[in-house]
Amino acid sequence: MKIDMKILKELMLIHGVSGRERAVAKRIEEMITPYVDWVKYDAMGNLICFKKGSSPDAKKLMLAGHMDEIGFLVTSIDDKGYIHSSPIGGIHYVSAAYSNVRFEDGTVGVIVPEANFGNNFGADKFVIDIGATSKKETEKKVKVGDFAAPVSHLQHLTGSFWSGRPFDDRIGCAIMVHSAMELKDCKNDTYFVFTVQEEVGCRGSKTSAYAIMPDYSLAFDVTGSGDGPKARPMAVSLGRGAAVKVKDSSVICDQGFVSLLMDLAKERKIAAQLEILEGGGTDTCSMQTAGAGSRATAISVPTRYIHSNNETISKKDYDASIALTVALLETDLSKVEF
Amino acid sequence: MDAKKLLEALGSVTTVSGFEERGHGQVKEILAPYFDEIAPAGVAGLACISRCGKENAPLVLIDGHLDEIGLIVTDIKDDGLLTVGSLGGIDRRTLTGERFIVHANEPLFAVTVKKPYCMMNGNEQRKTPSMEDLRLFTGKTKEELTALGVKVGTTIGYEKNYFSLSDDLFFGPSLDNAAAAVAGTLAVEMLKGKELGCDIALLLSSQEESFGAGFKTGAFSLDPDEIFVVDVDLGNTPETDKNKTVTVGEGPSVALSVQTDKAMTRSVIDIAKAKEIPCQPVLNVKSTGTNASAVPFLMGGIPCAVVSIPLKYMHTPAEGISMKDLENTGKLLAAYIEERYGVKEAE
Asked: Whole-angstrom Cα distance, residue A37 to residue A57?
């Protein structure tokens, strides 16, 4: 299969801060509908797409990638027209300083720290400047309760490396969309679930997993790597393949499912590496513990500078993740002994 | 049955938090003689069930978590040294000087790498080693380790040595929470031959020491009517605050907490009094620090009591309990179940 960056880029450029994922969902719905049996939304806004499995004892497999990105929520506007905000998700204020932000309606601004902020990089030291000179002028474009996000972009670096935002987690969504497209023989009853509000506590996956009650679950997300400059030691590197999650700070994955994915990767000659992420959680945990529980793990894309404006990935890992996902979807899980 | 033997047998099974399935076969074999059936329940849990023979009988669930604290390999360095992370709240002070077992295809010994004490400056001597700096030495090269099945995600545990300090005091690793499994089994044994109106499930749940996935899912799949969470409680030792600990040898603790059911807990304490079983009511107002934390959010909420075995030196390779406390925990569970679900003969 030949995968280009088109779908990923398109998804990355759509505005969709936690709680405001509708535009992302609509575009994914258009992309995936021809390849699945039905799509629906639940009350929280999770997009659930189903494809029936060909196995006579088809198991329920839930895939989850979150549509939301981190951003800012407008809390007040001062007399000079500056916008005060609070972070939605784990905003990295060092990275946010002096960057461009965009509101849902397209209004752009810059987020700047106040003078003499010292080492205090917190939400209260930052304002968004949209160039207005009074509260009244700002309020014509931006209201309390509006959402902004750092301006999205994607650029090619050297070799297989790309940087931009938000890879977290449009890359997970794109892997799922491509997998649905590439899939030839869907063996399991597969739910492609594009979840909401992961960045604020894995909320969308909690309700959707509870409604589906899968036998097997697989999350798609980014993970850290140990190969960034002075990075915390981690046995994951960019370009070494899809990362199969063993553990993160919210979940210990099912060993059988992890081994199955690693064996599949070996058999199909897909690059894969084992991942332990020491800081950070994913939708995996909510799927593992829904109802009577499921065998859960995640396929992660090794990423440097997560939650910054220039998250960086290797396309090799993106390709490997799609290939490994397709291989799994074409494996009859009812025939696998654990 | 010999409770000490059973405790040593169960404690010796490798069930590091999150990787409990490795020990399922052995646990089933050890407990099979005491139960009607043993089946998987929830995430990596085992439900050991004792049936009363009546249809649609209510179910009393006794939860005793199966997992133990341990370490996990996070990387194999080029020189063969292992970097590790913790699974559960391991006491880092115990890490140096201890012999560990790497759970590879065959068990491998490992020791922690450490600068000699006499070469450390005063600050270094006083410092507890950080997890990030810790390296484990197995005497093998990276290639040898890989061939033996060691990889990112392989678990590591304390070496399992058990010993008695007196007839009553029994020591060793992972009594948290093998003791609970034994207490539950004792209760089922004590109730053998008695006519009951309930089934009993001893749920050996996974991940209590880490993320709690096992209890929530196991309990959900069993759909019980009442729950006993059985765990260990902090036993007092000379350096601990008497008000925050319980006394080893004075019976199981019974938690009074927002997480426990008032009527059920009261009834447990009353029955202990009536049957002269020693027990220690303790206040754990906000949280019991056990699987009971999940009970208020479980389905519609289920009555729950927390009964714990006092234990010294928690999360070290030398945890210690009183066998008398263990037996009394079994007795108390059995007495409650008999009182509430026993079929009384018509007079």
From this structure: 18
